[in-house]
Design brief:
The chain has one domain: Galactose-binding lectin (Jelly Rolls, Sandwich), CATH 2.60.120.430. It is mainly β. It is built from 1 helix and 13 strands; from the N terminus they run αβββββββββββββ.
């Protein structure tokens, strides 16, 4: 994809450790060249399991904040916490993805980072996979509740590979369709990772951020990673 162009503000950020693994949603097929995320695939909207009371309370707080202007920096992910979006939008060969949201291996900052293992099984014959961070969770545009991120100039994130040479096909924000669709989308990719942490930036200048429910998304495929891959993400933030 060509370059086109997350996050609670410090006043409302609340770090809550993840005590459960979200069950992935249903995936769909895609061509061998990888997913077309220009429009959001249809998914079932089943609630994520295993929320603690504290996590549920934070999501309620998010709902109260949604559709109002937020303060920056606005985090999608910061050190094992639930931020403003929920990583429950699993796509493609989701059975081939393992995602640890509180990995203590090789964090860029703090004590944890996101570790993603993408296995080469093509278990659902899609040959690609990805995960959306959404709010409201499990909605795919079916429920109102996106954020007004007007004023953000960029989304930055840090990423590295287990060995170096891993390729993420696309990282994007927005792009959720449905009844309550996102106001715009922007992204970068493909990006080739190094073993060392690198910062990447999605330019949001000129992007309509008045309603964003798809706060962050990554996708990759077997054509770019024939043996699968392991990579890490950290400090995902709108600024």
């Amino acid at each position: 994809m060509n370059k086109s162009g997350s996050g609670f503000g410090q006043g409302v950020w609340c770090a809550v450790t993840w005590t459960a693994v979200f069950l992935p949603l249903l995936g769909t097929g895609c061509s061998r060249s990888g997913p077309d995320l220009s429009s959001t695939p249809q998914r079932s909207a089943q609630p994520a399991e295993g929320f603690t009371k504290a996590e549920a309370g934070l999501l309620n707080e998010n709902a109260a904040t949604a559709l109002r202007a937020v303060k920056f920096p606005f985090y999608v992910y910061q050190d094992a916490g639930i931020g403003a979006f929920v990583p429950d939008g699993w796509m493609g060969d989701f059975k081939d993805v393992k995602m640890d949201l509180q990995s203590g291996v090789h964090p860029r900052s703090g004590k944890t980072c996101v570790k993603v293992d993408y296995l080469p099984g093509a278990s659902q014959n899609s040959r690609w996979a990805g995960v959306y961070w959404q709010f409201p969770g499990n909605s795919w545009g079916s429920r109102k509740g996106g954020y007004d991120l007007t004023g953000a100039r960029k989304l930055s994130f840090w990423a590295c590979g287990e060995l170096g040479g891993e390729v993420i096909q696309e990282v994007k924000i927005g792009g959720i369709s449905g009844k309550y669709k996102d106001s715009d989308t922007a992204g970068i990719g493909p990006i080739t990772l190094m073993k060392e942490w690198q910062q990447f930036v999605i330019n949001l200048e000129g992007v309509d951020l008045s309603y964003i429910s798809g706060g962050f998304c990554w996708s990759t495929n077997l054509d770019l990673n024939k043996n699968g891959c392991t990579f890490y993400l950290d400090d995902i933030v709108y600024e």
